[in-house]
Design brief:
This protein is α/β, with parallel strands linked by helices. It is built from 14 helices and 13 strands. InterPro entries: Alkaline_phosphatase_core_sf, Sulfatase_CS, Sulfatase_N.
Length: 484
């Protein structure tokens, strides 16, 4: 054995913090529930941004979207940024990424829906030829083109053709909701787990391994294999928080959104209850499929004898509105269902059978992992705070607030959200209005207190806290090395 801890980062796409069995009994996730029992659950972890690329880049750099350059989808992570892979390789790690990365645009420039060439999308950095520091990468994004679809084409050309044609859309599909006839053994979720298992099997335990297994689901369309959707046929589904009438309390310019005008969606839906229940059941079914595959990968770590010194982090890039407040998908909103993400830490140095309400952000993952593997000095430029003292049980918290940002300044909206234990404040650039929710008295976020006279003193305190956060969150690089 190397004597160093192996690291397994598991991410999903668009998964809510309340979409796991240990918090929501309706969801079947025995393997993730097991990791939660054996490690620590951060109940109040929040995404860097409510859309994919900015959050993924923050997970991997420990830096905020306005600093690392990928401020929204359709914008690439700056190739000059140092990533978790770069830091780990300095400590002797072999680094492998499998699944969805989304550090670059998936579509060609010019605001077309034409897919970017795989050779361009997955190209190596100019400075070292690697994909953002990975020694190996096996990428499959939302559109499936690349290694996954190529491999399926070799195994079963008919299945690959059907995927390219309509993703196995069923005859009774409604919008982006259906039960798929795609065999589970040929599904993208299975491919990601198979490729992760192969990486473990082929790796020498004498060198510490960093493996990122990045699942594309439960991102829409909500189309699990039929076998998994059947698991939820008789499951009682709770109603989403709020309803479409909540639109009346939203800031004015958000009322103007239509279709996919806002990057990342966030569409106001007009679906009936039966449709929404089908959608939510399928969403849960996709998660159950992922959970099953996580169990298979965990078995490979054990079979290889690499699980004793294994650090595991499970999280998601952001949540899913899932009908809350009349909305679906993601976009320029900061409701809990969209911004609160699952976060489980397990392994050496992490307290077992523990849950914490300590606030955590995506940018905290990099410094936390580096401290847990015994990194003597934290690299310059990292903006996150190590949660190691919380994870070990040494202290209750290291943060007083969590920040989430949505930047679509090219489309007319730029907002920042400050979350404390009790309150949530949202400020929109150049606008007099905003949002303020008292989560203690209003956990479903239905009553905007931004202009409520009884909340003005608290609003001003939160705005002052936000200003200080924004000042501290500027880029600490370059480091000053001389007096003048």
């Amino acid at each position: 054995m190397s004597g160093k801890k192996h690291i397994w980062l598991i991410t999903t796409d668009q998964m809510r913090g309340d979409a796991l069995g240990y918090e929501n009994p309706a969801v079947i996730t025995p393997n993730l529930d097991g990791l939660a029992r054996e490690g620590m659950v951060f109940n109040r972890a929040y995404c860097a941004s409510p859309v994919c690329t900015p959050s993924r880049a923050s997970i991997f750099t420990g830096r905020y979207p306005h600093i690392h350059g990928a401020w929204n989808i359709g914008v690439s992570l700056n190739e000059d940024e140092l990533t978790l892979c770069d830091h780990l390789k300095e400590s002797g790690y072999h680094t492998i990424g499998v699944g969805k990365m989304h550090f670059r645009e998936q579509c060609k420039t010019g605001f077309t829906y034409e897919a970017e060439e795989v050779s361009v999308r997955d190209r190596g950095r100019e400075r070292d030829g690697t994909y953002y520091g990975f020694d190996e990468h096996h990428i499959s994004e939302d559109n499936m083109i690349g290694e996954y679809l190529d491999e399926i084409g070799e195994r079963d050309p008919d299945v690959a053709g059907r995927l390219r044609k309509d993703l196995f859309r069923s005859d009774d599909a409604a919008g982006d909701v259906w039960e798929s006839g795609l065999p589970p053994e040929l599904h993208q979720t299975r491919w990601i787990s198979d490729r992760s298992i192969r990486a473990i099997e082929e790796h020498s335990p004498d060198q510490p391994l960093f493996l990122w297994s990045s699942f594309v689901d439960p991102h829409h369309p909500f189309n699990p294999p039929e076998a998994y959707s059947r698991l939820y046929e008789h499951t009682e589904i709770s109603e989403p928080a709020g309803d479409a009438s909540d639109v009346k309390g939203r800031p004015g310019h958000l009322l103007l959104q239509k279709g996919s005008y806002w990057p990342g969606g966030g569409e106001l839906h007009s679906r009936d209850h039966q449709h929404m229940k089908r959608l939510i059941r399928n969403y849960y079914a996709m998660i159950t499929f992922i959970d099953e595959e996580i169990g298979r990968i965990l078995g490979a770590w054990k079979e290889k004898g690499m699980d004793d010194e294994l650090l595991i982090v499970f999280t998601s890039d952001h949540g899913e509105l899932l009908g809350d407040h009349g909305l679906l998908y993601k976009g320029p909103w900061f409701y809990e269902g969209l911004t609160r993400i699952p976060m489980i830490l397990k392994g050496p140095g992490v307290k077992k059978e523990a849950k914490t309400d300590a606030l955590m952000e995506h940018v905290d993952i990099v410094p936390t992992l580096l401290e847990l593997i015994g990194r003597a000095k934290m690299p310059e430029g990292i903006q996150g705070i190590s949660q190691q003292p919380v994870a070990s049980g040494e202290t209750e918290r290291v943060r007083e607030s969590a920040m989430t940002a949505y930047d679509a300044h090219d489309r007319g909206v730029h907002a920042k959200c400050l979350r404390t234990d009790r309150y949530k404040l949202v400020i929109f650039a150049d606008e007099a209005y905003g949002e303020l929710f008292d989560l203690e008295s209003d956990p479903d976020e239905r009553y905007n207190r931004f202009f409520d006279p009884s909340y003005q003193e608290m609003k001003h305190k939160l705005m002052e806290m936000l200003v200080h956060r924004m000042m501290r969150d500027q880029d600490p690089l370059p480091v000053r090395k001389a007096f003048w």
